[in-house]
Amino acid sequence: MVKNYFTIALRVLRRDRLFSIVNILGLSVGLTTVLFIFLWVKDELSFDQFHKEIESIYYVYEHQEYTNSSQSFYSYVTPGPLAPTLQEKYPEIEHAVRFTWATFNVKVGDLLVNEDQVYMTDQSFFDVFSFPVLRGKRETLLTDPSSIVITRDLAVKYFGSDWELQDVVGQAIRLDDKWNVAVSGVVENPPRQSGLQFHAVVPFHFLSDRWGSWVETDWGSNALRTYVKLTPGTNAQALASTFIDEVKTQNEGSNVELYLLPFSDLHLTALNGKNDPKTYLRIFVVAAIFILLIACINFTNLATARAMKRAKEIGVRKSIGAMRNQLIGQYLMESLVLALVSSIVAIALAGVLLPWFNLASGKQLLWTDVDAAFAIGLAAIVGLTGLFAGIYPAFYLSSFKPVEVLKGTVKLQGGLFRKVLVILQFTLSTVLILSTIVVNRQLSFMKNKDLGYKLENVIYLEVKGDPRAAYKALEAGAARFPDIISLTVADQVPIDGGYSTGNMDWEGKDPEMDVNVYFINTGYSFLETLGIELLAGRPHSREFSTDTVNVVINEAMAKLIGRSPEELVGERFRLWQNEGKIVGVVKNYHFEKMNAEIGPQVISLSPRRGNNVIARISGADLQASLASLQTIWEEAVPNQPFDYSFLDQEFNEVYEKEAQVSQLFTSFSVIAILISSIGLFGLASFVAAQMRREIGLRKVLGATMQQIIFAFSKRFLGWVIVANIIGLPVGYWLMNLWLEEYAYRITVQPIMLAAVALLTLGITLTTILYQSISSAATNPADVLRHE
């Protein structure tokens, strides 16, 4: 029976080629989209899952509430002493590990390079995280204070492609031209689905040697990421409730509360809820369902529209004894075969388009990522697609009465149902198109908004060791080259978000007022180099020796204090132990992503902390300007590579996720419109065939071609207008929800809604125009001769 169903299904698909081609095109494109989205979702959900006992690993984070200043913060970093304190006080914690990362200047033989993502961490790092050890013993990897663990890539880079044939353990490496270390082990490169990406790992004391011993004792500064591994059977939330106030206990006056987050959830969690990765995950899954639903609607519409062509077949089958359930089985088989053929085409399309999808999504998806569970899931989707698309046509077609069919008196139903499906189809397309326009406009807004500083021709480099001597030499060298316009140093790049502190006081501050304020340590000419506008006062200057304790603040800080910029210049201000004055107030500039409102910031003069050299160079001859900078760099720090980055490139990378979302949304909208148009074209073909007699009579009665085209087109345009009436408010509401995640955002303008409406109507008219003109041009004699 099944074999017979299958054979007939193939015969029907071959016989009615227009129906088959339209549906295979629509379903295959829809299934290709679903395949890509599910690969992407699988990749996102697989992050960090390779770690053993991951269910026992938790991330420790902070929540800080400043009630008096209406500030609330979530912090991914915690105080340095927290990890050892937790492990010592709470037996439920098997291991506690803290780390941060930095760039080290590395010398191996004659090779001199800068290596970023070097983790400085505790001995228990490799006890908590299950990175495969290729050389050395896991339990002793970081016990020697002069050890370094490198990845496979660095082993190849330092010791050649035949490193596995060498005894690399014990090989000497020099760091920052200061420390001699020996390789204690080689670990596998962190997989791309790892949230922890490092090139090398060194013992924690390197951080203390670089930053100072305060990092191990100061409970008032957040600098490190902290993870804990719990003993089996421990209730994580119950445990977290016992140490929620640990920082308050150790640091009187603190408002920090501690919480635990499962490590397996970290990749898809935004602590503050803004731009939560899970939101994008849900959006893309819904988009995939939309597109597949649009493709299924095509099949259902076309199958019911062509019912008259199959009515006689049904009548004959029933008259010779075919049961209704047999007919239902036959038509469901046709739908399943169509879905199967479409899935084969979809897999072929996905194979061709995977490199493009990787480029658009920023992923590195591979077919080797597909496992049995994924294949079973895909097969289930194909089967459900076939059943969903074919179930209504199967029941509808099998309901025809054989007597009415053979007499020619059958009345086809389902016109209203087809209208509803077309309206639903274009409603979904309308929502996707509006979403695409809004996402693209928001991305353009963020990229082109006045940041408060100038990105063009600004580069930065990281200097190792004490930056003061290097800064002095670089400034002196820059004076010799007119194409180096300005040069300064800072302890962070302006777009990094920055550090924060509450250890400050100013004239008139309420003693009960708790604050958390961003700060940046800079050199002279910081404002000039970045082009930050001064509203009142002056920048830091060498003409004033007291400027080492004086500060410049931004507008948001002035607002927090509660006075105008002009009034604040000259007022007392203490930052940490530095008792000084406010010498200037600058216009707000974006030092965080635009989903966060510009917060209060203090700019401190402290070149000794400025390990980032920032230079503005002439753009007239960029290569010559870079050569000038390289000359003075090699004179000032001869043992450090000239590795530079452009600030505008870094800025674009900050919004890379939004750019990827924009590309994907554009692709989804194009696909949705393509599938809808394919279905509409097929439906218009069948409607044109059904209207042949009506059109012939209209022409005999004197109707013009324009009137006939209008009569043919108005039903389709009416459906799309209704779809816009439904879809535009839904899309408007959804996009406003999404835009709320950005402190600086566009508004959804009426012109955007009008553009979507005109676009969908234009696409509809273009799609059916051929059938309209073809029908209107028909000779009525040819039609009525057969009626």
Task: Describe the 3D structure.
The protein is an alpha+beta fold. About 50% of the residues lie in helices and about 20% in strands. The chain has 26 helices and 23 strands. The strands form three sheets. Strands 14, 15, 16, 17, 18, 19, 20 and 21 form an eight-stranded mixed sheet that branches. β19 and β20 form a beta hairpin. α1 packs across α12, α2 packs antiparallel against α22 and α15 (about 415-450) packs across α25. It starts with a helix and ends with a helix.
Keywords:
single chain; alpha+beta; eight-stranded mixed β-sheet; six-stranded mixed beta barrel; 26 helices; 18% strand
Concise account of the structure shown:
This protein is α+β, with helices and mostly antiparallel strands.
The share of residues in helices is 40-55%
Regarding quaternary structure, how should these chains be classified?
single chain
Q: Strand percentage, roughly?
A: 15-25%
Distance between the termini: 39 Å
The total of beta strands comes to 23
The chain-level mean pLDDT equals 84
Alpha-beta content class: alpha+beta
Which geometry do the CA atoms define? elongated
Work out the helix count.
26
Poorly predicted runs are none
Radius of gyration, CA atoms, in whole angstroms: 34 Å
Largest sheet, strands/sense/barrel: 8 strands, mixed
